[in-house]
């Protein structure tokens, strides 16, 4: 049996191609933690992580302390995926990003030890699936220009950030539907920017635009206020971080029909699969989303998504928004469809650092 002999981590600040605005913040860069785990057999596994403080309560001090705590716990230990993942439980509630960071690297190693892509280790239940491409809040001319560019390379599913200005949202969505035409799929994400009255006003003014679903319209933990809203499908994002959150939201009387799993907020692949099983039991659909993050996290989330029966929606596009990724990958997008282009083992990553 191999043991974990080397643990290295670093923090990189990566610029975005263009500013990205949601209801509560504008991003121009993203801080990405990178981890490498080296085994005594010479194999190395890689992971990355980002966090959103307003969702998980993490900050850099918390994350860095958690990373070092787990490094001290794992170094010299025998590599055994279930055991090693169990050793992350002590910090998962404190720093889900740290737990996800280590789980990515551990699962990457698992695939490399078996010389198989991670999706083959998990077991595929879906063919390759399309992802939405997300557009931040900006003026309508910028949005229209970006939509044209994305349509030109084959994207057919568009997620639009809303929630900062109700009347602007309504106006822009009408323009956006004209640009993308009647057949393209259209989703919106309010990032907690509305109250119930604004949500109903938004829906009444845009119902004829055939919006597929509305993501996180109200502030998290306000599910009961949504009980009277039956107009269209709703997806839970900020309201769903932990497995405990998922159990609450998965109940039959929940207003949310769709559960958005993000590895960085739930703590990694182990927790994600638990949430996915819960979704199957309660007949909820899964959407797999992401923070602003490296292709490493996207490859892990896509591998998991293809392995889960309840998967219906993907929003795995953030690696397209960053200026220079830390890894090259065998994961590509063709006409909006994610696909692994080789059978490279593990997550299929090659570091650029």
How do the helices and strands line up, and which of them pair or pack?
Layout (H helix, E strand, L loop, with lengths): L3 E18 L4 E14 L4 E6 L3 H4 L3 H15 L6 H6 L2 H4 L3 H18 L4 H5 L10 E3 L4 H13 L4 E5 L4 H15 L4 E5 L6 H11 L4 E5 L18 E3 L6 H7 L8 E4 L1 H4 L2 H13 L3 E4 L6 H12 L4 E4 L12 E3 L1 E4 L2 E4 L8 E3 L2
Parallel strand pairs: 4-5, 5-6, 6-7, 7-8, 8-9, 9-10, 10-11
Antiparallel strand pairs: 1-2, 2-3, 12-15, 13-14
Helix pairs in contact: 2-5, 7-8, 8-9
Describe the structure in brief.
The chain has 353 residues and is of the alpha/beta class.
Q: What kind of assembly state do the chains in view correspond to?
A: single chain
Q: How many domain regions?
A: 2
- Rg from C-alpha positions? 20 Å
Strand content: 15-25%
Give the total of beta strands.
15
Mean pLDDT: 96
Poorly predicted spans = none
* Main β-sheet description: 8 strands, parallel
Number of helices: 13
CATH topology name of the largest domain, in short, is TIM Barrel
Q: Tell me the helix content.
A: 25-40%
- CATH class wording of the largest domain: Alpha Beta
CATH architecture group name of the largest domain: Alpha-Beta Barrel
Q: How far is it from the N-terminal to the C-terminal residue, by CA?
A: 29 Å
Order of strands across the main sheet: 4-5-6-7-8-9-10-11
Structural class by SSE content: alpha/beta
Question: Order of SSEs, N→C?
Answer: EEEHHHHHHEHEHEHEEHEHHEHEEEEE
């Amino acid at each position: 049996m191999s043991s974990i002999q080397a643990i290295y981590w670093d923090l990189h600040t990566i610029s975005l191609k263009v500013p990205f605005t949601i209801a509560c913040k504008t991003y121009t860069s993203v801080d990405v933690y990178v981890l490498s785990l080296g085994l005594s057999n010479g194999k190395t596994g890689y992971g990355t992580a980002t966090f959103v403080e307003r969702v998980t309560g993490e900050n850099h001090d918390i994350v860095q302390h958690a990373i070092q705590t787990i490094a001290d716990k794992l170094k010299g230990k025998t590599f055994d995926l279930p055991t090693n993942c169990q050793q992350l439980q002590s910090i998962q509630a404190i720093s889900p990003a740290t737990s996800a960071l280590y789980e990515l690297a551990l699962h990457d190693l698992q695939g490399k030890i078996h010389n198989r892509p991670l999706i083959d280790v998990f077991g595929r239940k879906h063919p390759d699936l399309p992802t939405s491409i997300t557009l931040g809040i900006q003026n309508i001319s910028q949005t229209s220009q970006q939509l044209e560019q994305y349509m030109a390379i084959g994207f057919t599913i568009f997620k639009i950030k809303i929630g900062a200005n109700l009347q602007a949202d309504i106006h822009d969505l009408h323009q956006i539907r004209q640009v993308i035409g009647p057949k393209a799929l259209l989703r919106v994400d309010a990032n907690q920017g509305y109250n119930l009255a604004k949500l109903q006003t938004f829906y009444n003014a845009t119902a004829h635009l055939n919006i597929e679903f509305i993501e996180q319209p109200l502030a998290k933990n306000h599910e009961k206020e949504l009980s009277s809203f039956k107009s269209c499908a709703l997806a839970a994002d900020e309201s769903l971080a932990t497995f405990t959150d998922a159990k609450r939201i998965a109940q039959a009387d929940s207003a949310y029909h769709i559960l958005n799993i993000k590895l960085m907020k739930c703590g990694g692949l182990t927790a994600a699969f638990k949430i996915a099983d819960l979704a199957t039991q309660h007949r909820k659909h899964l959407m797999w989303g992401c923070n602003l993050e490296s292709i490493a996290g996207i490859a892990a989330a896509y591998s998991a998504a293809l392995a889960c029966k309840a998967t219906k929606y993907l929003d795995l596009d953030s690696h397209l928004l960053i200026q220079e990724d830390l890894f090259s990958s065998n994961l590509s997008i063709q006409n909006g469809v994610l696909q692994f282009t080789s059978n490279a083992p593990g997550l299929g990553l090659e570091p650029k650092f």
